[in-house]
Design goal:
The chain has helices spanning 2-39, 239-245, 279-285; strands at residues 46-51, 57-59, 140-143, 148-155, 157-160, 163-166, 173-176, 186-191, 212-217, 220-233, 255-263, 270-278. By secondary structure, it is of the alpha+beta class. The chain has a domain at 140-285: Sortase, Chain: A, CATH 2.40.260. The longest helix is centred in the N-terminal third of the chain and has 38 residues, at 2-39.
Length: 286
């Protein structure tokens, strides 16, 4: 029993010693290998040309590659571009920007210019001036819308059993004696045939309000605008009715032109009355 215990005591330290020696040996071997790896010569490789004449293996001499340095790439220095200023005309308003913005380097930020709203002044049409008052009756009548351009002559009246009757001009319009001169206060009356003796008032029936009529006294024109158109039946009517219709050619307290003829073309049963007022007076009222 004692002998077995003694063997055990001897064997355990021995094992530890052996293990320690093994560990030391392994570490030494690793150090030696590391040292040999660091100081080992570069390996030789067979030459691509094969063996030399004497059967020895020739090794290829490695030539280090020649590196040609590239020229350095120059970084361009940014050049400051002077800002371009647009000349602003004095008569032109610059619209202010709708939103704020940050100016970038190299540009100039102009302050916004206030824009003024244009003021429109309405152009008034000059009022035509009154022509000079005539000192003689008209000698010509022009009505563009019916193509009339006729001479005007002086006519009077004839006394009959039924009263006075106005004479009629042939191949012309007749200015009634005693009626107003153009350009003067009163009623300027002209009559004419529409189906015989020149038919100067043949198309007077086609006139409508706003049509223009021109009377001339020499070279002076008197401009009128049609304001009224009337048809009165007279054939077979009593004398009172005919006298009532005659008030259209009577003197008036305003300035006007009255044109008179018969109608219709085939029977003359009616009296046609056209009233026109001076153009300049109508424009002055409008």
């Amino acid at each position: 029993m004692k002998m077995s215990l003694l063997k055990r005591r001897i064997a355990f330290p021995t094992i530890l010693i052996v293990l320690g020696i093994a560990l030391l040996t392994t570490g030494s071997i690793g150090l030696v290998r590391s040292y040999l790896d660091l100081h080992a010569p570069a390996p030789s490789f067979p030459s691509p040309m094969g063996r030399g004449e004497e059967g020895r293996v020739t090794t290829a001499t490695s030539i280090p590659p020649t590196l040609t340095p590239l020229p350095p790439t120059a970084t361009p220095t940014p050049t400051a571009v002077p800002p371009t200023l647009r000349p602003v005309s004095k008569a032109t308003s610059v619209q202010a920007p709708a939103a704020e913005f940050s100016p970038t380097p190299g540009t100039v930020s102009l302050p916004p210019t206030a824009t003024s709203s244009p003021t429109f002044t309405p152009t008034s049409t000059p009022t035509p001036s009154a022509p000079p008052a005539a000192s003689a009756p008209p000698d010509r009548i022009v009505i563009p819308n019916i193509g009339l351009d006729a001479q005007v002559v002086h006519v009077g009246w004839t006394v009959t059993d039924e009263g006075a009757a106005w004479d009629s001009a042939d191949q012309a319009a007749g200015w009634h004696q005693g009626s107003a001169y153009p350009g003067r206060v009163g009623n300027t009356v002209l009559s004419g045939h529409h189906n015989i003796k020149g038919k100067v008032f043949r198309y007077l029936i086609d006139l409508e309000p706003d049509d223009e009529v021109f009377l001339y006294v020499g070279d002076t024109a008197y401009h009128y605008v049609v304001t009224e158109k009337h048809l009165f039946e007279e054939k077979g009517k009593p004398q009172e009715v005919r006298r009532a219709n005659a008030h259209w050619i009577a003197p008036t307290d305003d300035e006007r032109l009255t044109l008179v003829t018969c109608w219709p073309y085939t029977s003359n049963t009616h009296r046609l009355i056209i009233v026109a007022k001076p153009y300049w007076k109508l424009k002055a009222k409008s």
